[in-house]
Design a protein that fits this description.
The protein is mainly alpha-helical. The protein is built from 3 helices and no strands. It is 80% helix and 0% strand. It is elongated.
Length: 107
């Protein structure tokens, strides 16, 4: 029997809506950044140039901080992987002193 009702999926409608909303907001934010960067040059000699230039500097600063946070997270993840490898190797050695040191270090 054919059904005219749409098929139900396991996707939560609120999650899908939030994803679309985030995507729309990111697009709007990117457009705003582009507009402000282009408008700054056109505002030379007007009282609006300084506030727009200030906002552009703040946007660039915020973007740099976000990029640094991403890079820091990557470094922490790689360090964790390396420490796990060291812990596995030391645990295979059967050295109880090394095992105690690892547990003490891990907290």
């Amino acid at each position: 029997m054919l059904s005219i009702l749409p098929q139900l999926t396991s996707v939560d409608p609120f999650t899908a809506r939030n994803t679309r909303m985030k995507s729309g907001l990111l697009t709007a934010w990117s457009g705003t950044q582009l507009l402000l960067s282009k408008v700054e040059g056109l505002l030379a000699g007007t009282p609006f140039k300084t506030p727009v230039a200030t906002v552009n500097v703040l946007i660039k600063l915020g973007n740099a901080v976000a990029e640094n946070n991403d890079a820091l997270k990557d470094i922490i993840a790689r360090t964790e992987e390396r420490l796990n490898i060291v812990a596995i190797v030391l645990a295979k050695e059967g050295d109880t002193v090394a095992h105690l040191m690892i547990q003490d270090f891990a907290g």
